[in-house]
């Protein structure tokens, strides 16, 4: 395809959020890539926050960090996992970011004294960003997911951008409505009416859907398909059945079976091509294959809002564990274990014995920390495989200094500002940010290099002596404790060459006890499981 004719596919939600726009966007991208096109994906998040870093993960889900240190929406993780490319800040925007740019332009007279208006200047800035992302990735197809659902005030300017792009280049823009078809229990029948309303609301924003992805508990049957076609003005072959599945990685194959890729190519005036989803089909085999089940406890403070949100806040960790499991031909079960329970009754610690491994994921703040430290001690002493991610590495170091080096006051200054033994401290630049309430985008963010120590499990797992991983933290290991801790057995096996910061610790004489200051979960892909997750699950399955 000529570089000049870039194509854009907007993914828009109908009826309610949380039905799988992100996975739909990612799956369409995967299908187009399997046809030999280059495709990228971009998320337009309606929030006024400049990035997701300042959003509550319990409400908004995981903060996904890119190589270039952008704090973005969890859907970006799905794009990376399905498209198998690294994205950057060009692939993410929020309402706040768009307005910030327009206001900065206005302040520097970029609009040459004209009145700056919500329309057209805001959608124009949105379009500029969408096009920049397409250029940056040199993408034939750019899939733009608009957050939220049609009919909200919040995302109307993103829809306006889609409308304006289509008006200018009608052949280059397609719109996919991802909508939900409920089956009310007392009726027992799939209802199309909410989706009809969504399609019409989309019409009133000046957009006609080219395709409807019909999400729901069941397959879309013939009568429902015909209804959608008539009432939403979408060809019935372009009403795609997308029932719930047990693994999101089955969706590209399911969608390809309905020829979603070629149908979109037709809308966009591009000749059909064969898809090659063999790697996806092989992955599905692996997912189904595992015989043995490995049980893993994820220990942290309990958010108290139910499994659903918890899972959303740690979506990349969950996916990375699964990737590691499939690479070891095992199935995996993860339980959320509330660390505060261990504070109330330490006797409950022995319940951890029924698990094959313990993960302490990233986190912030004071609540549940003492319970987490107890759980880490239990895993260390009972030789249960342990994997600490970010806070999980910091707290493992504190546990070791307390209980092995005997410095009972060891702590992180995040919890105890005046601790006598600041094993985890804050560097002066970060302290300055906190003092000035400069929280947004100021943590140690994004990809940093790390040199690995020879003769360690870590270097063996990676098969490399230098790696790069993504970070998101404000506090860090205090090098005053390095030598003593290392000598006593919690070895420092990964160091950032520029800053000399400790990136990885690994315990000697333990089946697997590794803590990492970074977030390896962000770089794990179903087809390319992260080496440390793979090794961790391997140790768990022994
Ligand atoms: N709270 C710790 C810090 O800011 C760890 C952060 C994390 O786990 N992402 O350094």
Short characterization:
The protein has 542 residues and is α/β, with parallel strands linked by helices. Helix content is 37%, strand content 22%.
Map the helices and strands:
Layout: E1 7-13, H1 21-34, E2 39-45, H2 57-60, E3 64-65, E4 71-72, H3 75-83, E5 92-94, H4 95-107, H5 118-136, E6 141-149, H6 156-168, E7 173-180, H7 193-204, E8 211-216, H8 222-232, E9 239-243, H9 251-256, H10 260-267, H11 278-289, E10 293-300, H12 307-313, H13 315-327, E11 331-338, H14 340-344, E12 357-360, H15 369-381, E13 386-389, H16 391-403, E14 410-412, E15 421-426, H17 428-435, E16 444-452, H18 457-462, E17 466-473, E18 475-477, H19 482-487, E19 490-495, E20 502-507, E21 513-516, H20 531-540
Parallel strand pairs: 1-6, 1-7, 2-5, 2-6, 7-8, 8-9, 10-11, 10-12, 12-13, 13-21, 14-15
Antiparallel strand pairs: 3-4, 15-18, 16-17, 16-19, 19-20, 20-21
Helix pairs in contact: 1-3, 4-5, 5-6, 13-20, 15-16
The structure holds glutamine.
């Amino acid at each position: 395809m000529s570089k000049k004719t870039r194509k854009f596919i907007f993914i828009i939600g109908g009826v309610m959020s949380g039905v799988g726009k992100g996975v739909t966007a990612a799956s369409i991208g995967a299908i187009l890539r399997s046809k030999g096109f280059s495709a990228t994906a971009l998320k337009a998040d309606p929030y006024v926050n400049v990035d997701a870093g300042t959003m509550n993960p319990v409400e908004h889900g995981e903060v996904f960090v890119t190589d270039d240190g952008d704090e973005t929406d969890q859907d970006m993780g799905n794009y990376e996992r399905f498209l198998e490319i690294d994205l950057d800040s060009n692939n993410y925007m929020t309402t706040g970011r768009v307005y910030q740019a327009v206001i900065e332009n206005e302040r520097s007279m970029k609009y040459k004294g004209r009145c700056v208006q919500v329309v057209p200047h805001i959608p124009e800035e949105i379009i500029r960003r969408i096009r920049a992302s397409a250029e940056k990735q040199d993408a034939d197809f750019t899939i733009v997911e608009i957050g939220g659902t049609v009919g909200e005030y919040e995302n109307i300017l993103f829809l306006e951008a889609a409308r304006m792009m289509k008006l200018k280049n009608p052949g280059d823009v397609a719109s996919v409505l991802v909508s939900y078809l409920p089956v009310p229990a007392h009726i027992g029948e799939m209802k199309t009416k909410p989706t009809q309303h969504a399609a019409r609301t989309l019409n009133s924003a000046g957009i006609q859907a080219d395709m409807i992805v019909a999400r729901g508990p069941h397959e879309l049957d013939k009568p429902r398909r015909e209804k959608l076609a008539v009432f939403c003005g979408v060809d019935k072959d372009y009403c795609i059945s997308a029932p719930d599945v047990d693994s999101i990685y089955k969706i590209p194959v399911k969608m390809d079976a309905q020829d979603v890729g070629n149908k979109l190519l037709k809308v966009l005036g591009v000749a059909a091509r064969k898809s090659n989803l063999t790697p996806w089909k092989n992955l599905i085999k692996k997912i189904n294959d595992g015989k043995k089940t490995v049980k893993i406890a994820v220990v942290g403070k309990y958010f108290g809002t139910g499994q659903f949100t918890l899972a959303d806040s740690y979506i990349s960790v969950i996916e990375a564990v699964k990737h590691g499991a499939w690479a070891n031909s095992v199935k995996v079960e993860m339980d959320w274990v509330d660390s505060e329970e261990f504070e109330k009754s330490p006797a409950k610690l022995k319940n951890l014995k029924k698990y094959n491994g313990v993960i302490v994921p990233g986190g912030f703040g004071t609540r549940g920390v003492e319970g987490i430290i107890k759980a880490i001690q239990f895993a260390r002493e009972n030789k249960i495989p342990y994997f600490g991610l970010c806070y999980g590495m910091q707290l493992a170091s504190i546990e070791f200094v307390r209980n092995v080096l005997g410095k009972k006051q060891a702590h992180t200054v995040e919890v105890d500002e005046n601790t006598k033994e600041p094993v985890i401290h804050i560097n002066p630049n970060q302290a300055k940010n906190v003092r000035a309430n400069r929280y947004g985008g100021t943590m140690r963010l994004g990809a940093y290099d790390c040199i690995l120590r020879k003769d360690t499990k870590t270097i063996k797992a990676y098969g490399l002596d230098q790696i790069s991983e993504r970070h998101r933290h404000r506090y860090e290991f205090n090098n005053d404790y390095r030598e003593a801790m290392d000598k006593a057995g919690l070895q420092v096996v990964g160091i950032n060459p520029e800053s000399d910061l400790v990136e990885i610790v690994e315990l000697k004489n333990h089946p697997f006890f590794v803590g990492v200051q970074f977030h390896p979960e962000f770089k794990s892909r179903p087809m390319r499981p992260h080496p440390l997750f793979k090794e961790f699950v391997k140790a768990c399955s022994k």
